């Protein structure tokens, strides 16, 4: 039986429904929620997106920053950002501030955010400026920050700096990747492993059209898993984790052609009460 998930934001009173397409959700909740709005993973809720152009690009600063002696421990990086928004309840548990890094080499057919694929597009920004925006008062209250894409591991220096800086600010950090956890660990890259060692949650795997039935919360297709600390530690220690077979698809180009998207990831319906 398909699962239906309703997430209520107790700050705004908005309800986000997962597990139905927008038409079904509109019919089911007619008369309960006014003005339903279709949203999707990696797309911001209305009125919460930060204007990165106005933020000043690379050197932008603002919001509370750690003391200089704390900041010295975190290496700064420059990267390309597709968008940044607050108050998301669909990109990991709770209310989250989200940064989408620009550029994705995976190119799942039918991806709902193709504008994030071009690695030369987006706004060039310093990691410190991004961290300032993620922790800005305008996004409060928040339960954590989420880094997604695009493909975050395609900008490894930027990802490393954002994860280290967010952990320095004691944030709960979730990362979405189109690469499955076993594929990331097989890279045997110290920077990848350092990211996996610090984050609180990895939502991993490519978006697979044939696995969208019964998809669980915060994911676009059923092959994706929420890997919390214990599972990340298992993977880093070489212990078995779930889903090793499908994980191989994303690093084998000859099998990547098996991946076909039929609908945008995680169709969701959102309405103000
Ligand atoms: S990994 Fe994510 S951003 Fe990249 S193509 Fe697939 S769904 Fe789109």
Portion of residues in helices?
10-25%
Q: What is the count of structural domains?
A: 1
Q: Label the structural class.
A: alpha/beta
| Strand order within the widest beta sheet | 6-4-5-7-8-9-10
Report Rg: 18 Å
Which regions are unreliable across 5 or more consecutive residues at pLDDT < 50? 60-64, 244-273
Largest sheet: 7 strands, mixed
Question: How is this fold's topology laid out?
Answer:
Layout: E1 5-8, E2 15-18, H1 22-28, E3 34-39, H2 52-55, H3 68-71, E4 78-88, E5 96-101, E6 123-126, H4 127-134, E7 144-148, H5 156-168, E8 173-177, H6 181-186, H7 190-198, E9 201-204, E10 225-228, H8 229-236, H9 244-247, H10 253-256, E11 268-272
Parallel strand pairs: 5-7, 7-8, 8-9
Antiparallel strand pairs: 1-2, 2-11, 3-11, 4-5, 4-6, 9-10
Helix pairs in contact: 4-5, 5-7
The structure holds iron/sulfur cluster.
Iron/sulfur cluster (SF4) binds next to loops.
């Amino acid at each position: 039986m398909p699962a239906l998930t309703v997430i209520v934001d107790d700050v705004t009173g908005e309800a986000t429904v997962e597990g139905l397409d927008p038409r079904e959700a509109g019919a089911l909740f007619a008369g309960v929620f006014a003005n339903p709005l279709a949203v999707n993973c990696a797309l911001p809720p209305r009125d919460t997106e930060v204007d990165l152009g106005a933020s000043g690009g690379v050197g932008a600063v603002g919001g509370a920053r750690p003391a200089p002696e704390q900041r010295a421990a975190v290496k700064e990086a420059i990267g390309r950002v597709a968008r940044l928004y607050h108050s998301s309840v669909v990109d990991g548990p709770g209310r989250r501030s989200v940064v989408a890094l620009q550029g994705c080499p995976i190119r799942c057919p039918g991806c709902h955010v193709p504008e994030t694929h071009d690695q030369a597009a987006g706004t060039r920004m310093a990691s410190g400026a991004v961290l300032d925006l993620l922790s800005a008062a305008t996004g409060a209250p928040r339960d954590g920050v989420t880094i997604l894409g695009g493909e975050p591991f395609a900008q490894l220096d930027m990802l490393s700096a954002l994860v280290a800086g967010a952990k320095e600010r004691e944030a709960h950090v979730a990362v979405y990747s189109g690469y499955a956890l076993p594929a990331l660990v097989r890279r045997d890259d110290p920077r990848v492993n350092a990211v996996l060692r610090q984050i609180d949650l990895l939502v991993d795997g490519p978006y697979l059209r044939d696995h969208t039935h019964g998809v669980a919360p915060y994911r676009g297709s059923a092959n994706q898993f929420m890997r919390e600390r214990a599972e990340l530690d298992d993977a880093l220690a070489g212990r078995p984790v779930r889903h090793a077979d499908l994980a191989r698809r994303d690093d084998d180009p000859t099998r990547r052609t098996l991946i076909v998207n039929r609908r945008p990831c995680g169709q969701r319906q959102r309405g103000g009460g």
